Amino acid sequence: MPEQKPYFDRCLELAAQAFSLGEVPIGAVLVKDQKVIAEGYNQTETQGCFTAHAEILIIQQATQTLKTKYLNGCELFVNLEPCPMCRAALQLSRVNRVHFLLPSEKFGEKGAALHAIEIEPAHTEAFSEEREKSKQLLADFFEMKRRRS
Questions:
Q1: For the sheet containing 35-41, what is the strand order?
Q2: How far is CA 81 from CA 56, 103, 108, in A?
Q3: Using an 8 Å Cβ cutoff, are 107 and 55 in contact?
Q4: In this structure, are strands 74-80 and 35-41 parallel, antiparallel, or unpaired?
């Protein structure tokens, strides 16, 4: 699709900028109605934070620009398939479509490392009173939200 080429070209420019700063060379562009809303590149080394992926940074930028937490109608262009963290953030922010140039052999949907990520569940029955307080707090919050809608 020729109309996507300028967005991917910009992704590659941003990825090259990340590379020049010693970052993993990933660049991303978020588009709505054929207009660039946000763009960025990985900054995990620069910011000293593993969540400073290009996709996360442009979600933050776009929500401020559009003054909404939801990015309905937006499309992401990125040079490498988003990792699980970024895919979840994109889904939760309601980005409509993700276009990528390369699948991630390590962290992509079919990546080898995805299955190696295991976090031992720490759910415990020992704090039943605290669990009930947490459950009630969440239930009250969402009930309040439903009444306001």
A1: 35-41, 27-32, 74-80, 97-102
A2: 13, 5, 6
A3: no
A4: unpaired
pLDDT for residue 122? 53
Q: How far apart are CA 134 and CA 72, in angstroms?
A: 31
How much of the chain is helix, strand and coil, in % rounded to 5? 45, 15, 35
Q: Strand 35-41 vs strand 27-32: parallel, antiparallel, or unpaired?
A: antiparallel
C-alpha triplet 138, 61, 2: angle, nearest 5°: 120
| pTM, two decimal places | 0.80
For residue 80, the 8-state DSSP code is E
Interval 115-140: pLDDT, tens: 545 555 555 566 677 677 777 777 88
Q: Which amino acid, residue 2?
A: P
- Dump the DSSP string for 23-69: S---EEEEEETTEEEEEEE--HHHHT-TT--HHHHHHHHHHHHHTSS
User: Would you name the residues annotated as active-site residues?
Assistant: 55
